[in-house]
Write a structure and sequence with these properties.
- This protein is mainly beta.
- The protein has a domain at about 70-155: Beta Barrel (Thrombin, subunit H).
- The protein has helices at about 5-25, 35-45, 275-280, 285-290, and strands at about 50-55, 70-75, 80-85, 90, 100, 115-120, 125-130, 135-140, 145-155, 160-170, 175-180, 185-190, 195-205, 210-215, 215-220, 230-235, 240-245, 250-255, 260-265, 305, 315-320, 325-330, 340-345, 350-355, 355-365, 370-375.
- The strands form seven sheets. It has a four-stranded antiparallel beta sheet with strand order 1-26-25-24, with no helix packed on it. Strands 2-3-4-5 form a four-stranded antiparallel beta sheet, with no helix packed on it.
- A hairpin with a 2-residue loop joins β6 (about 115-120) and β7 (about 125-130).
- The radius of gyration is 21 Å and the shape is globular.
Amino acid sequence: MGEAAGTGGLAPPLLLAFAVMLASLSGTGCSPEVDRSEKLLEQYRSIEVTPELAMIIEEDEEMIFGQLGAIASDSRGHFFVNDHQLIHIKHFDRDGNLVETIGREGRGPGEFSRVTNMFVARDTLYAYDFDNARLGRFVRNESGEGMRFDHYLDIEMTNERIPRGVLKSQNYYVVESVDHQAYTGQIALLDREGNVLEPDLLTLPLPERVSVMFQGNSFQISRPLPRRSHYRLTPDDYFYYGWNDSLVITRFDIRGEAINTIRFDVEPPRVTREDTRRLSENMPEEIWSTLRNHVPETRHAFTNFVVDEDERIWVNLGNIEEDTDEDRWIILNQDSELVASFRLYPNMFVHFVRDGVLHGVKTGEDELRRVALYDTGL
């Protein structure tokens, strides 16, 4: 399943652009000033906004959550929440009312085994079923209220590459896969019919592994707090990519040409004793005795980022302030200028931003997950 003409046109500029990008991200960044951290915090506070909890959806007698995963939204403000444990997708209207439950466990039409990610493009819902390696497409039914199953797109890769997730822009699919033999992550570009245009849009090194001994056997395990890559595909065919050891995010077009780079001078917080305690929890001492020597001195520069419809970058820097347990978020424009900043509930993973509202899954002190929307007023 491929298209030679597409591959020939994409490969040369693509590989050159990403080679330059990877080289630029491998450095250590700018030298920190003595009081840079405090200066940055003062800068954050000077343009700070206060997000308000716009909606929270909790379990009740009629609606039970298992393990909440991805969230997606359409142009009407309806949103869709994947439930890993109950193996279905809940469809809510813009006021948080449950409209319907989509799908169920199985391998038939409209069924799936394990949805690892989903998204909405042109008001069509897509859900990637990892176990069946196929992308389910759901369109609005005739009444315009609910969604109905349309068809599956099989995601066919090689035997060495196992697809993990799929994203879609207006005209393309981007597939993330893992090559276990080479121990790398691969990003491939597909057309709207599922034909592979570029099998190696980007090659991502997986987290560094450490050889440990346990009960007389040697095996590989990821080092603590490993350096990770983050990427986003926007509806208008732009690709954002960066490593979390520094706040450097490069914007590419779908052909792999670098357009601009968004940078912000962030000093990652140092790893504390509490951090190492949490890392060692529920881990045999035999393994931890090796891993403790591989704990980095600093945490990540950011934990996640999303891109809104105005091409602003919303970045979660994590808990970087001593006077609060909340996470610090900043918003950057395409010129790397700080638009605003705010604090947000610490255990909330934001999946996307629409009209200044953050949509995500919030984990409470009771360990239960809830759908939460925060309005920043921006």
